[in-house]
Amino acid sequence: MKKIISYCFALTLFAACSSGHKKIIVYIKGNSTVNEDAKTITVADGSGSDEKVISYKTADIVQLQVKGLGDDAAVSIDNNGLYVLNAKSDTIIGSYQKYSDPRLTQTMKTQDDLKRDIDSLVQLTENKNISAANRNFYVLPKTAVKISDNVDAFVVGPFHRMTSVEKEGDKTPEVYRFYSIKEIRETIAKLTELTVSKVIKPSDN
Q1: Which of 97, 115, 152, 175 is the most exposed place for a label (fewest CB within 10 A)?
Q2: Does the predicted model carry a pTM greater than 0.70?
Q3: Partners of 26 in the β-ladder
Q4: CA–CA separation, 122 and 130 (whole Å)
Q5: What is the per-residue DSSP string for 92-140?
Q6: Residue by residue, what is the 3-state secondary structure of 78-101?
């Protein structure tokens, strides 16, 4: 009887250790398609931006194939957790964000704040200071990065306009915000305009 119990316990322990969950948010464009069962993303050109979520309940490595628009690519999802896969033609860049209640969101920024924001954004576009420890991510086309162990973390994708996420109770939401590199460069240009002092010409009178 003891042997049977030990055997059952071993099987239960093995099942618990071998279980896993890999959640992948795939950013696509145009008429691109995602086939979760076939583990294939077929990239197509076109307008618009979309995202698909695929999930695999396994501790094994998941191999995804990204096809179309140039050379095919194999993307390996090695560990459990939440991933972002870029199946768009442009690099996407993201980072952890401290989202707050809409009523507490800052609406005014000083010139020093703007300059710090610009410097930070420029470094992101140049793939500088990018690391998992900094919780920021530079995702080239047809590649994937793990962003969190928490598969339930909240991810805001490119071209979304969300600026805040409300708390659930006392728990601060884990939020990551991603942009296309084009969006970031446009933001840098707009912020730079705000740092330029306007010269007021004296009146002729």
Answers
A1: 152
A2: yes
A3: 52, 85
A4: 12
A5: EEEEEE----GGG------HHHHHHHHHHHHHHHTT-S--TTTTEEEE-
A6: CCCEEEEEECCCCCEEEEEECCCC
Tell me if residue 167 falls in helix, strand or coil: coil
Q: 18 φ, ψ to 5°?
A: -90, -5
Rg (CA), the chain: 22
Q: Is 3 helix (H, G, I), strand (E, B) or coil?
A: helix
Domains in the chain: boundaries: 20-101+134-180
Helix (H) or strand (E) holding 42: strand 40-42
**Per-residue model confidence (pLDDT) at position 48:** 81
Check residue 170 and report its DSSP letter: T
Token reading at 100: 């707050």
pLDDT tens track for 103-154: 444 557 788 888 888 998 899 899 998 988 899 999 999 999 999 999 999 9
C-alpha 93/C-alpha 91 separation (Å) is: 7
- CA–CA separation, 141 and 22 (whole Å): 20
